[in-house]
Amino acid sequence: MVGPRFRRREMLAALAAGTLVPKTALAKDYIDLEWGDLVPPGQPAIPPVIMDLIQHDGPSLSSEQPPSQGVRTEWNGKIVRLPGFVVPIEYSGTGVTAFILVPFVGACVHVPPPPANQLVFVTTPEPYEGSGLFEPVNVIGMFGTASMTTQLADIAYALSAEHIERF
């Protein structure tokens, strides 16, 4: 498995198509996305198997991740805003510099992860000083498809955050 720092550099290089948009422009120049927008038409955003309660003493939850049925590419290279919950992956001091943005509380930790097309790997150049695990946030930044694997789940999308705000 490739280390998180290498994946982050690789993902940032893939998303960087020039200079990033200044924060002042982000206030009005982004596309609002919802989690259902990330799955191909006709697919449920959250598979029924995940909605059932599971026992927390069972095997690794990553082994129970449902397969992804494709991604949508129309927002590659676009500045988007996506709400979700923070599952920290990498820290710098007390701030989070890489995390998985998930569509519901408990995803990837307390219940099996959603399909890869319902997970977004987020990196931020400035550590985000959040309030803890599963904090609800809005993330604004450059979006794209980026297949990667972490210890928690397979992930189909990446977002280079320019602005993170509490939801």
Written description of the protein model:
It holds the Pfam family DUF3299. This is Lipoprotein. InterPro entries: DUF3299 (IPR021727). The protein has 167 residues and is mainly beta. The protein is 12% helix and 36% strand. The protein is built from three helices and six strands, in the order H-H-E-H-E-E-E-E-E. It has helices spanning 4-15, 23-26, 48-51, and strands spanning 31-32, 79-92, 95-102, 120-128, 136-149, 154-166. It has a five-stranded mixed beta barrel. Mean pLDDT is 79; it is low at 1-9 and 11-26.
Question: Which helices and strands, and how do they pair?
Answer:
Elements (H helix, E strand, L loop, with lengths): L3 H12 L7 H4 L4 E2 L15 H4 L27 E14 L2 E8 L17 E9 L7 E14 L4 E13 L1
Parallel strand pairs: 1-2, 4-6
Antiparallel strand pairs: 2-3, 2-5, 3-4, 5-6
